[in-house]
């Protein structure tokens, strides 16, 4: 069965500090992994996907197949990064996308 | 660009009533999904569809039915609403490389 685990419900950091949001997955096939973000009063939106190996708004995420992890990182957090972050896994072909429970990031001034 | 549109945005139902949530997408996506979002639970997949005329159960399908008669529309039905179905419902569509979400429907069952 597929599963996405985000162990932290809430993560609070100071502005300018590094931030890492953890994500672990369980899937027997070859997963497609994503990070989504939901800012206050806005709809969920795609932040980045592992296949693109991109950096969006200073965030990066590396797929570690050995540790089955896809942690989201940013070296210097900004107040506008405060939001709910969801890690997601799509099964082969993108048929089924499941989400973790989410981590609320709060960046303090 | 409309993207993914959900109707209605808000609804209050009495226990036992029925209703249908409509999701419409204008991106010609094959895959569509219905999720519910609850505090501490994240997004849980209710049902999904991999194309017109097809539907499949997700993680929490009980109490819900869906239909995909047209490619652009994905309907979520509650035949007999229960307080446990109080939640925020999100529809999404994708071609497999990242999903686009609707704005959500806040449903309260009293």
Tell me the major beta sheet of chain A: 6 strands, mixed
Q: What would the principal axes of the Cα set say about the shape of chain B?
A: globular
Q: What is the helix/strand order of chain B?
A: EEEEEEEEEEE
Strand percentage of chain A lies at over 45%
**N-C termini distance of chain B:** 35 Å
Which blocks of ≥5 consecutive residues of chain A have pLDDT under 50?
Answer: none
Q: What share of residues of chain B is helical? A: under 10%
Give the averaged pLDDT of chain B, no decimals: 94
Indicate the structural class of chain A: mainly beta
Quantity of strands of chain A, as a count: 11
Number of helices of chain B: 0
Strand-residue proportion of chain B: over 45%
How far from one another are the termini of chain A?
41 Å
The overall strand count of chain B is 11
Contiguous uncertain segments of 5+ residues of chain B? none
Oligomer: heterodimer
Radius of gyration of chain A: 13 Å
Question: Which chain pair has the greatest contact?
Answer: A-B, 24 and 27 residues
Keywords summarizing the entry:
heterodimer; A: 109 residues; mainly beta; six-stranded mixed sheet; three-stranded antiparallel sheet; 11 strands; B: 110 residues; seven-stranded mixed sheet; four-stranded antiparallel sheet
Walk me through the structure.
The complex is a heterodimer of chains A (109) and B (110). In chain A, strands 2, 5, 6, 9, 10 and 11 form a six-stranded mixed sheet that branches. In chain A, strand 7 and strand 8 form a beta hairpin. Chain A is built from no helices and eleven strands. Chain A has strands at 3-5, 10-14, 19-21, 24-26, 32-38, 45-49, 60-64, 69-74, 83-90, 97-99, 103-108. Chain A starts with a strand and ends with a strand. Helix content of chain A is 0%, strand content 50%. By secondary structure, chain A is an all-beta fold. Chain B is an all-beta fold. Helices cover 0% and strands 52% of the residues of chain B. In chain B, strands 2, 4, 5, 6, 9, 10 and 11 form a seven-stranded mixed sheet that branches. Chain B has a four-stranded antiparallel sheet with strand order 1-3-8-7, with no helix packed on it. Chain B is globular. The model of chain B has no long low-confidence stretch (mean pLDDT 94). The A-B interface holds A 6, 9, 32, 34, 36, 43-46, 49, 51, 86, 88, 90, 93-102 and B 31, 33, 35, 40-45, 48, 50, 56, 58-59, 90, 92, 94-104.
């Amino acid at each position: 069965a597929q599963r996405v685990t985000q162990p932290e419900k809430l993560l609070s950091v100071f502005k300018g500090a590094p931030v890492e949001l953890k994500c672990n997955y369980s899937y027997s096939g070859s997963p497609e992994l994503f990070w989504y973000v939901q800012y206050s009063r806005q709809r969920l939106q795609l932040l980045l996907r592992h296949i693109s190996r991109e950096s969006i708004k200073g965030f990066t995420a590396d797929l570690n197949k050995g540790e089955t992890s896809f942690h989201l990182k940013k070296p210097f957090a900004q107040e506008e990064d405060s939001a709910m972050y969801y890690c997601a896994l799509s099964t082969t072909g993108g048929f089924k996308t499941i989400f973790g429970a989410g981590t609320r990031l709060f960046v303090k001034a | 660009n409309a993207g993914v549109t959900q109707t209605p945005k808000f609804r209050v139902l009495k226990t036992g009533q029925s209703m249908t949530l409509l999701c419409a997408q204008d991106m010609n996506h094959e895959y569509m999904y219905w999720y519910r979002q609850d505090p501490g639970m994240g997004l849980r997949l209710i049902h999904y569809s991999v194309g017109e005329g097809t539907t499949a159960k997700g993680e929490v399908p009980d109490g819900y039915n869906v239909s995909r008669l047209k490619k652009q529309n994905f309907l979520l039905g509650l035949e007999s609403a229960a307080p446990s179905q109080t939640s925020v419902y999100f529809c999404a569509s994708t071609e497999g490389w990242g999903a686009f979400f609707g704005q959500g429907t806040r449903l309260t069952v009293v």
